[in-house]
Write a structure and sequence with these properties.
Layout (H helix, E strand, L loop, with lengths): L1 H5 L10 H19 L4 H27 L6 H19 L6 H27 L5 H20 L23 H21 L1 H11 L1 H6 L4 H26 L10 H14 L4 H21 L8 H17 L4 H6 L2 H9 L24 H6 L19
Helix pairs in contact: 2-7, 3-7, 3-10, 3-11, 3-12, 4-5, 4-6, 4-10, 5-10, 7-8, 8-10, 11-12
């Protein structure tokens, strides 16, 4: 599949920008870690950014490309965090390598979350709009309440994951997370650009027309919902290996809204936008926690909300569009690559009129006087068409 994409006529460098940026960030972080300059707090921040990107991109499949509103993404993450991490804890008693345990638990947690996505999506996707949002929201609240009361997962005290949590002695977790981000981006972008992706966006644009064209609407809706749930489960497994204990309070309605905010801020149907927003929001949270200790921590959510409101207004206000265009990435690149030409350099331009060789000098052309009776008459064509 990779060879066919690279040999394709549709291959463009701009489609690989997000891979390049993520890979460069990973290499830079690994370099700093090797030099001993990367603090533990920043390593944890990188893990948060990584699984946030996975969550935002996967939810964008449902909200941005399919056009359905889901508020239960944190519920699927909760399934992956509890069950996937629990499986990893059982495997750690047999397998010494934490990386192998993590990889197996990623697959198991993602598959289990996908099964839940199928069970919830099969009846729920027959609904639309607010009704679908209410059902997915109810699923998220129900599933975390169930884990709260199960004795195998520590009940209200949470699931202690100390046996599988990555420490300083282990391979940094952010490396595995960012490699997974690259894989997720590759899979999602290829899905979106394939014929199946065009069918999904056709359902978003006009479901009736899509049915009339022979697209299996129910299949594609359920397919996208299951894929998004799988990736959310994988993100949950990363969360379970990054923190301890795994608490049900983290997967609340507010976190589902936060994931949705990442998608909306980045732009509906924009993968690159989701990456930027999923990077920005954890950084804002991290800086607010760092700068507002003690009693000032109560102001965190107020300042966080004001920042988000400001970003939304900036992205959507028509009067701010000129400013947005000037500071956009395209505009900055255009300014950096543009040649600075001065007025005095125009005379030295090889395309200047007096530098262009012509059969007749410009002075003769300008001084030609056409009088009546001296008009040019073309020769009549000879016989034979010559």
């Amino acid at each position: 599949m990779i060879k066919s994409i690279l040999k394709s006529d549709d291959f463009k460098l701009k489609n690989c920008i997000n891979y390049i940026v993520v890979a460069v960030a990973l290499v830079a972080a690994c370099t700093l870690h090797g030099m001993g300059e990367l603090k533990t707090s920043y390593m944890n921040l990188l893990v948060q950014i990584g699984y946030s990107i996975i969550l935002a991109v996967s939810l964008n499949l449902v909200v941005g490309f399919l056009g359905e509103l889901s508020l239960g993404h944190a519920g699927f993450m909760c399934v992956g965090a509890y069950l996937g991490t629990f499986i990893s804890m059982q495997l750690s008693e047999v397998i010494e390598s934490k990386i192998i345990c993590l990889l197996i638990s990623m697959l198991c947690g993602g598959v289990i979350a996908a099964v839940f996505g199928f069970l919830v999506g099969l009846p729920a996707l027959r609904l639309k709009g607010d009704y679908l949002a209410i059902v997915t929201l109810a699923f998220g609240e129900i599933i975390r309440t169930i884990f709260k009361n199960l004795p195998w997962f520590g009940k209200a005290m949470g699931l202690s994951t100390g046996a599988v949590k990555f420490t300083k002695k282990d391979t940094p977790l952010f490396i595995i997370v960012f490699i997974t981000v690259l894989v997720v981006l590759f899979l999602v972008q290829n899905l979106v650009r394939s014929k199946h992706g065009r069918a999904i966006t056709a359902i978003r644009d006009n479901e009736i027309a899509a049915k009339a064209m022979g697209i299996n609407v129910t299949f594609y809706k359920l397919f996208v919902f299951v894929i998004a749930a799988f990736f959310a489960g994988v993100a949950g497994v990363f969360y379970g290996h990054y923190t301890t204990p795994v608490m049900y309070t983290f997967f609340s309605y507010n976190y589902s809204i936060e994931i949705l905010v990442m998608v909306v801020l980045g732009g509906m149907g924009s993968i690159n936008g989701s990456i930027i927003a999923a990077t920005l929001i954890p950084i804002i949270n991290f800086k607010l926690q760092e700068k507002l200790p003690g009693d000032l921590a109560a102001l965190k959510f107020l300042i966080y909300a004001l920042i988000l409101i400001g970003i939304v207004i900036f992205n959507n206000a028509p009067k701010l569009a000129p400013i947005k265009e000037k500071i956009s990435i395209k505009a900055i690149i255009a300014k950096l690559t543009a040649k600075n030409r001065k007025p005095e350099d125009i005379l030295n331009d090889p395309a200047h009129w007096d530098k262009i060789p012509t059969k007749i000098s410009m002075d003769e052309v300008l001084s030609t006087d056409i009088q009546p009776g001296n008009e040019y008459v073309p020769d009549k064509p000879e016989k034979g068409g010559k």
